[in-house]
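WARN retry 2 of 3 for item q-0093 after timeout on previous attempt; input resubmitted unchanged.
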Amino acid sequence: MRTKHRSTLGILAVAILAACQPRDADSDSRSSAAPEGAVEPDMPNIVLVIADDFGAPHHSFLGADYMKTPNLDELAVSGIVFGNGYVPANHCRPSLRTIATGLLPVQYDAREARNRAAFTESAEYLAMSPEEQRTWSDDYQFHSMKDIQTLPGILADHGYLTWQGGKWWEFTYENGGFTHGMTTGWEPEDRNSEGWFLQFMGGHGRELARVSNQAAYDFVDDAGDRPFFIWYAPELPHYPFDAPQRYYDIYKDEEMSESAKLYYANAS
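OK item q-0093 returned
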C-alpha cells in the first residue's frame, strides 16, 4: 500500500443529497459528463466513507471506550461530527440507494414503479416477444437506478471523475452514474451459481479494503488534476470477521465474548 495518498483518502465528506432530484421517466437518465477542461476552480475532492453494520455506540470518539477506532477518531477530531444521523432503512440496499439518489426508500420504490410502468407502454417494450418482456421485467430491479438521477451522476456532469468501490447492489457502477468503479455486473447464469448473492452485493467491489485499497489509489493516480468523488464503502466491519491478527490482539485479553472481539477487530 502506498502512503502518498493516505491524506487524500483520509477526507471524510458529507454529500449534500438535497441536490439529487429524481428524473422523469421520459427524460434522459444521464447527461454527458463535462469535458476535460470544463472544471470549475477550487472544486474539492470528495471521499464518502460508508461503514457497514456499524452503529454509533461502536465508535471510540463517541464514547465507546471499550473500542479502538483510531483512524475514525482522527477524522472526527479534524472535522465535524453529526451525532444525530440515521439510516433510512434497516437493510443496506435501500439505505445505499438513499445515499446515492437522495430518495427515501418509499420514494425510490414509487419512482421505480413509475419508470417501469412508463416503459411497458413504450413501442420498444411492445415490440418485444413475451419472453423478452419477462426477462426485461425481471432484470429491471437490478437496473432501475440508471433511470434516476444520482449524486455521482450530478458530480460527473460538473467535471468530476467519480469512482465506486465496496458494496454496490445496482449491477454495475455505470447504473449509479459513476465514471469508474469496481462492480462490473454478472452473467445471467451467475444468478444460479453458489456465489450469486455475493455477486449481487457488489462482486469485485467487495474486495475494497478487505483485500486491498489499490484500486482506489490507482483511481486517484489516474485522476491527475481532475476533481474526484470516491464512494468508499467497504463491507466492514460486517461479517466475515477476518481482521488481521494485530487488530484482534487489541482485544484478545479483554473480558468480552469471542464474537465481540472479532467484530471489534474488524471495526478497528
